[in-house]
Design a protein that fits this description.
Number of strands of chain A: 12
Strand content of chain A: over 45%
Helix content of chain A: under 10%
Order of helices and strands of chain A: EEEEEEEEEEEE
Radius of gyration of chain B: 13 Å
Shape of chain B: globular
Number of helices of chain A: 0
Structural class of chain A: mainly beta
Distance between the termini of chain A: 41 Å
Largest sheet of chain A: 6 strands, mixed
Order of helices and strands of chain B: EEEEEEEEEEE
Oligomer: heterodimer
Number of strands of chain B: 11
Distance between the termini of chain B: 29 Å
Radius of gyration of chain A: 14 Å
Helix content of chain B: under 10%
Number of helices of chain B: 0
């Protein structure tokens, strides 16, 4: 069964430092995608970054990068130069392609990141 | 949220009442996904709809929950005879046409008293 595991319920980081949020996944699908979403206290889900299973290079989007290790089935999010506004819940998710062209996202339980001044 | 609209943002119901949650996808889009987020949990897929069709409802509870996406108007997630365990945030999402990510609406927070 497809599963996303985020083992860090909470993480703390000092402002301006880098932080890594862990994500491991389990799937038997040959093709899949991995996402990270940010959920601030206001509750909305904000897309951060995407990595396809066949992408040769790790994805980067500004201060966000995805450390994709396919053999280890891990897709850790690295946030560089943390800012106070980065304090939020972070969810790792896996995209499953289903028959008929549909797809769905399978989410982990999330990691609560707190950035200290 | 890239134009995905949900209303109401907050909904309070007493046990046994009905809850109706609405989602309008991004303009020109005809697909929506519904997800539920229980307290302290990640989002869980419920149903995927195209206009007038349910494509995948494998995540929908077997009873009291239904979803539709009519030809005109928003998608509706309907919960009949609500119970306290239905208290959650309900999100709808619209896939990006030229990309892979799903854009989420702001969510509806349902509280059952």
């Amino acid at each position: 069964a497809q599963k996303i595991t985020q083992t860090q319920p909470g993480m703390f980081v000092q402002e301006k430092e880098a932080v890594t949020l862990d994500c491991t996944y389990d799937t038997s699908d040959p093709s899949y995608g991995l996402f990270w979403y940010k959920q601030p206290s206001s509750g909305e889900m904000i897309f951060l970054i995407y990595q396809g299973s066949y992408d040769q290079q790790n994805a980067t989007e500004g201060r966000y990068s995805l450390n994709f290790q396919k053999a280890r089935k891990s897709a850790n999010l690295v946030i560089s130069a943390s800012q106070l506004g980065d304090s939020a819940m972070y969810f790792c998710a896996m995209r499953r392609l289903l028959q008929g062209g549909s797809e769905k996202l399978v989410f982990g339980k999330g990691t609560k990141l707190t950035v200290n001044p | 949220n890239a134009g995905v609209m949900q209303n109401p943002r907050h909904l309070v119901r007493r046990r046994g009442q009905e809850a109706r949650l609405r989602c309008s996808p991004m303009k020109g889009h005809s697909h929506v996904y519904w997800y539920r987020q229980l307290p302290e949990e990640g989002l869980k897929f419920m149903v995927y709809l195209q206009k007038e069709n349910i494509i995948d409802e494998s995540g929908m509870p077997k009873e009291r929950f239904s979803a539709e996406f009519p030809k005109e108007g928003p998608s509706i997630l309907r919960i009949q005879q609500v119970v306290r365990g239905d208290s959650a945030a309900y999100f709808c999402a619209s896939p990006r046409l030229a990309g892979v990510e799903q854009f989420f609406g702001p969510g509806t927070r349902l509280t059952v008293l």
